[in-house]
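User: Last request for today: this protein with guanosine-5'-monophosphate, please.
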Amino acid sequence: MTIFQKIIDREIPADILHEDERCIVFRDISPQAPVHLLIVPKKLIPRVGEALPEDEAVLGHLLLTAAAVSTRLGLNSSTEGFRLVINNGRAGGEAVPHLHIHLLAGRQLGWPPG
Ligand code: 5GP
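Assistant: Here's the final one, the structure of the complex with guanosine-5'-monophosphate:
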């Protein structure tokens, strides 16, 4: 069981900003920007590279949830902004094998990423 499943199951605490039947959004424990959220499906999809055709709706829901949460936090404007990141596999920087989208905001983000 991953750490994110334990957060979903309320076995360990997290600063939760949003929850619905398909996903949960909480603050990253080690923030890389002033705003660093994790958007996590309740279904255990290990990584986006292993998503199935039947996951199409939940994958879309994660992006729409990112947009909704960013709006709620005042980040969804032309002057503000945010970045969504999915780390996939070892070289991609994945540490937790439960699909999650990072939402980073609150500072000017560099490009290319490290
Ligand atoms: P990955 O490297 O897999 O894309 O991202 C995993 C993220 O999960 C990291 O940014 C890490 O800081 C975060 N994380 C790991 N353990 C915990 C935890 O127990 N609680 C929270 N809120 N975030 C965690």
